[in-house]
Amino acid sequence: MSHKLRVATVITRMTAGAGGVALRGAMGLDPCDYEVTIIAGGTGFDGRRSDRGSPDILFGADAVAGAPPGDLLAAAAAAGLQVARVPRLVSPISPRLDHQALRTLTDFMAHNGFDVVHTHSAKAGALGRIAAHRTGVPRIVHTYHGFPFHDQQSRLRRASYIRLERWLGQRTDAVLAVGAAVAADTARLGLISPERICTISPAVDPPTGTPGTAGRAAARRRLNVAPGVRVVGTVGRVDYQKAPEQWVDALAQIASDDVWGVWIGDGPLREKLLSRVRRRGLTDRFLFLGHRPDATAIMPAFDVFMMASRYEGLPCVIAEAMQAHVPVVATAVNAVQDLVIPGVTGLLVPANEPPLLARSAAFLLDNPSTARRMADAAFNSLGDRFSAHALGELLDQTYRAGSVRTTTAARPEPRPRRSVQWTSL
Predict the structure, then answer these.
(1) Which of 1, 132, 187, 256 is buried deepest, with most CB atoms within 10 A?
(2) What does the alpha-carbon distance between residue 360 and residue 394 come to, in Å, rounded to a whole number?
(3) Residue 178: CB partners within 8 Å, gap ≥ 6?
């Protein structure tokens, strides 16, 4: 009987696009060949409650207890994957918590003899790769969904992040970049040698609900909007990256009382978003739905999907909108253009330009035949490259390749494995 490869997937927040890609990728692997453990960071937005006497690491049912809305660790456990949570692994920089999280990850990896460590997101990408390198894990893989640095930061901070990513790249066997633009920037900035970069597409769930006109009618009933109302919607975390204030400003500049805005998702800027809605006089034509597990079933209700992000990787939610035959207008950042081809599969505008975002969304609303043509072309362009099966095949090839790091660590003498009782949910 062949040896199962033991994979540790480490991610800061098991939510939103990155969490979905990590989960679907793990589920795309053959369970006869792989034993996957997903290790996620602290619960709550940015790890609140992470340092209040909590254990170093939680397993099984304890790991998913009290998880915030949108956390996917419970879904991973329900799918038969082993799950763990490191409460002190949080997104904001915190030297004390970061040191404790690194110690926990290093100890856990040393005791469990993983064949592959695959990291996602900035903080888990740094601490997880350092821990894996220290403990001599044979194969270290990292996925760039985007970057922890961007043009909105100070030059010094951005340069510091790039230097750190180059240092981590020397301790990484392979980088999977979500989208061609992210892969190109990885090579251009010298984060890792070119032969170790592979472009991937994010796996997304297949459409839910009834397709076509009936599905749209059902989705609009979920929203409870009146006949004749046109809906401009988005799905995303309410944080700086998604530019929620600019999204609201764009909606306000679409001067039509029959146009409503819908935001699905939650995050630390929720109250600022709602305050902006009130100040712009949009209270009567704006719906804030928060986190909704049925987001993909609601999306067919949109007449236009509008994204205002300041920076991105390749957002899964754009592919989901295209699957729902919803025309897209988005900001031309990072790998978004992999999906949105201007004038063919949607419209692109510069970031930080709410008037242009509003004008483009209004154009699609006022020209439904053109919008339908773009939506149909977008749907047809997706093919099967966004399936969990396609991602699983690529991960299998990546995990089974040999180590090619420029710096290596001798694998320590194996310690007796810690006996862990995995609790199924």
Answers:
(1) 132
(2) 36
(3) 21, 143, 144, 145, 146, 200, 201, 202, 313, 314, 335
Identity (one letter) of the amino acid at 275? S
Q: Which fold has domain 5-203+387-399?
A: Rossmann fold (3.40.50)
- Indicate the DSSP class of residue 45: G
Is the pTM of the predicted complex or chain greater than 0.85?
Answer: no
5-203+387-399 matches 212-382 in fold:
yes
Strand 82-85 relative to strand 58-59, pairing: antiparallel
Are β-strands 34-40 and 5-11 bridged in parallel, bridged antiparallel, or unpaired? parallel
- 395/255 Cα distance (integer angstroms): 47
CA distance 381 to 105: 40
Gap between the terminal Cα atoms of the chain? 29
Q: Which residue, 365, 324, 364, is CA-closest to 347?
A: 364
How far is C-alpha 345 from the chain's CA centre?
22
| Secondary structure letter of residue 422 according to DSSP | P
Please name the residue that has the structure tokens 């979905």: 20
CATH fourth-level superfamily of 212-382: Glycogen Phosphorylase B; (3.40.50.2000)
Instruction: List the domain boundaries for the chain.
Output: 5-203+387-399, 212-382
Quick count: other Cβ atoms within 10 Å of Cβ 12? 27
Segment-wise mean pLDDT, segments of 10 residues, the chain, 425 residues: 86 88 92 96 56 79 87 92 95 91 97 96 96 97 87 83 95 94 93 95 73 83 90 95 97 93 95 97 95 90 96 88 95 91 97 97 97 95 84 94 61 44 34
Cβ burial of 416 (10 Å; 0-12, 13-18, 19+) is exposed
Q: Which two tokens stand for residue 317?
A: 């939610």
